Amino acid sequence: MPGLLSSIQRFDLSTGIPKAVWTTLLANAVRANLILPHAEKVFGRQKFTPKISSTEQLWLVYSKPGTSEIQFILACTEGPLDKYPLFILPIATLAPKLLKSAMEALCSALLNEPGFKRERVFSVFSDKIVTEAFALAWEKLAEISRLKDPYYDAFLSVCTKSTLCPQQRAAVTSEDLEPRRAVEKDTNQIAVLCKQFAATSAPFFLSEEKALEEARLLIANKQLWVLEMREHNGKPEIATIVAVTRKSEGIATITKVYTPSKWRGKGCAKTLVRHVCVELLEKYEQIVLYVGVENPAKAVYSHVGFQGLSEGSLSSERWLEIGFDNSKVKLGHW
């Protein structure tokens, strides 16, 4: 499909990302929260410790054939812990036939990339319709079967100052402490919680070593908040963590919320998520959060002020992660 392939431009560390693509990402910052912050870190537009050293950073930009109108941006990138899924930012809404052609063109461009291995594509995450179209195209062209059940089926939700709900008295019954940023002394506790959180996100588990590495990164980059609790004058324990690892101009994304079973049902997550949102909204206009369609915590986030958490609501957006045959791919982590 030479005509469609000519509609694709590729960019990497050596070429950089051109101004028109940065402009498109910034103009679609909520939906681009998976791609834009990472690109800014890679190219030194954001500070990140330590500097991301992986050279596997590729972006494919699909434009309407015969024009410079950008319709999709695909990121095939690697973060500080491992390779990410393919992330696709949809700019345009296309008819099914045109969408199929665009996704096949992106698949072909990946397969034609020098040195690219099909096993690199372990999953794809995007708007539901785009993910499904890409997964079908990849299955056809790469000859690797897509998995029937998605890894992640989620609503893209947003909270702003105008939707943030008023503070309500927490339901916590134990002695609670003030929410705060995580510090170095919390590292071991947080590593345990990161490992437990990953255990709920099959197949993207973390070893103890990787969980410790993640905890150190979150603390070093001031990306994690904790709420401590204690019972009967006992030693304080971290009852909930909230991570915010993706930020760009005007947008911050909550990427991890976890409460161990001991502290569930006490209002810990609601208290900490609201605290983090209040703090972030002093600097950012919108807070983004992906919430699983079947996640009972939807009610918690709705009570904080996140919008778009039900099918058919005005701001509802359904996003989907589809994986591919695990025997033929090499899993990464995000």
Helix/strand class: alpha+beta
Give the oligomeric state of the chains in this entry, treating copies of one chain as homo and distinct chains as hetero.
single chain
* Low-pLDDT stretches: none
Average of per-residue pLDDT values: 95
From the alpha-carbon coordinates, what is the Rg to the nearest angstrom? 20 Å
**What is the succession of H and E elements?**
HEHHEEEHEHEEEHHEEEHEHE
> Distance between the terminal alpha carbons, to the nearest Å?
32 Å
Question: In which range does the helix fraction lie?
Answer: 25-40%
Biggest sheet character: 13 strands, mixed
Shape: globular
Strand content: 15-25%
Contiguous helical run count: 9
Total beta strands = 13
What are the defining features of this structure?
334 residues; alpha+beta; 13-stranded mixed sheet; globular
Describe this structure in words.
The protein is of the alpha+beta class and 334 residues long. It contains nine helices and 13 strands. It has helices at residues 2-5, 19-27, 36-42, 96-111, 128-142, 187-199, 208-220, 268-280, 298-304, and strands at 8-12, 58-63, 70-76, 86-90, 123-127, 152-159, 175-176, 180-181, 224-230, 237-248, 251-258, 286-292, 318-323. The longest helix has 16 residues, at 96-111. The model has no long low-confidence stretch (mean pLDDT 95).
Task: Put the structure in a nutshell.
This protein is an alpha+beta fold and 334 residues long. The protein has nine helices and 13 strands.
Write the SSE topology.
Layout: H1 2-5, E1 8-12, H2 19-27, H3 36-42, E2 58-63, E3 70-76, E4 86-90, H4 96-111, E5 123-127, H5 128-142, E6 152-159, E7 175-176, E8 180-181, H6 187-199, H7 208-220, E9 224-230, E10 237-248, E11 251-258, H8 268-280, E12 286-292, H9 298-304, E13 318-323
Helix pairs in contact: 4-5, 6-7, 8-9
